[in-house]
């Protein structure tokens, strides 16, 4: 298949025809190709996913690491779905949202790990999409600064001011009050 044209609008039906070896996301019908993650990005992702997976073992919620497709729109027809993302880490607690193709609807939690090419998308476009979709907790991880910004969905369906954590901190997860993520181990990369 030829590369998608930025001036054309695409849907999830189109996404399904694209090369499986390439990572694409669609925002309001506009396709964005994702660069391959760096080694440090992968190490941070693996450590976070491991901590989440260990905690969630035997529970109803599930954790998924990229590539994992999330269709933020809940339309029944694949041609009507115009927002498709592949977060670095996705947690879904409602099993009815899961199918063989990923998640359809709002996950409970999403973690995005910044890279030089994704900063604007993660902090602006995805932030707004996740907030509108009702993602309860959204983390933006900044490997270079060893910081994590945690956004929690408020009763007014908007994200409040972020709680910001460094590599010296431990984060208590809002949707799992007895889970703490130790950022020393997350950022302990050589």
Can you offer a commentary on this structure?
The protein has a domain at 39-68 and 87-186: tt1808, chain A, CATH 3.90.1570.10. The mean pLDDT is 92. The strands form four sheets. A six-stranded mixed sheet has the order 3-6-9-10-11-12, sandwiched between helices. A four-stranded mixed sheet has the order 5-4-8-7, with no helix packed on it. With 190 residues, it is of the alpha+beta class. It has helices spanning 12-15, 39-56, 119-133, 183-186; strands at 24-27, 30-33, 62-65, 70-71, 84-85, 89-92, 98-99, 102-104, 109-113, 137-142, 147-152, 163-166, 170-172, 180-182. Helices cover 22% and strands 27% of the residues. A hairpin with a 4-residue loop joins strand 10 (137-142) and strand 11.
Task: Identify the notable features of this structure and list them briefly.
single chain; 190 residues; alpha+beta; tt1808, chain A; 6-stranded mixed beta sheet; 4-stranded mixed beta sheet; 4 helices; 14 strands; Restrct_endonuc-II-like; Putative restriction endonuclease domain-containing protein; Uma2; Nuclease_put_TT1808
